[in-house]
Amino acid sequence: MTASLSTHVLDTAAGGPAVRVAVELLQGDETVARAQTDADGRARLAESLDPGTYRLVFHPPSPFFTRVELEIVLEDGHYHVPLLISPFSCASYRGS
């Protein structure tokens, strides 16, 4: 069993993708993957992950949120976890 993970960061204040947002994936204290969002705000973090609990850490372009961290549990399959960010709010969900 393996899992894969991608993300998409959208700047809802600007109405478009958030470009060059640093994203990290950690398991425990170990960094498993690092990426930056592309011109479409997307990043593919890993193709072959062991099932388990991970922390997905975003460093968004916000004057208020300098770090957004989500703890996620991955099982078998592909996971897509978008982040919607504006200067003073953020939200996430499990995408497809």
Question: Can you walk me through this structure?
Answer:
The protein has 96 residues and is mainly beta. The protein has one domain (3-92): Immunoglobulin-like. The protein has strands at 3-11, 16-17, 22-27, 30-36, 42-49, 52-59, 68-74, 77-86, 89-92. Strand 3 and strand 4 (30-36) form a beta hairpin. 25% of the residues are buried.
Topology:
Blueprint: E1 3-11, E2 16-17, E3 22-27, E4 30-36, E5 42-49, E6 52-59, E7 68-74, E8 77-86, E9 89-92
Parallel strand pairs: 1-8
Antiparallel strand pairs: 1-2, 1-5, 3-4, 3-6, 6-7, 8-9
The counted number of beta strands is 9
Q: How much β-strand is present in the residues?
A: over 45%
What share of the residues lie within helices?
under 10%
How many helical stretches?
0
The succession of helices and strands, N to C, reads EEEEEEEEE
Find the structural class using helix and strand composition.
mainly beta
Sheet having the most strands: 5 strands, mixed
Radius of gyration, taken over Cα atoms and rounded to an integer in Å = 13 Å
Q: How many domains would you count in the coordinates?
A: 1
Globally, the shape reads globular
Low-confidence stretches: none
Q: Can you name the CATH architecture?
A: Sandwich
User: At the third CATH level, what is the topology name?
Assistant: Immunoglobulin-like
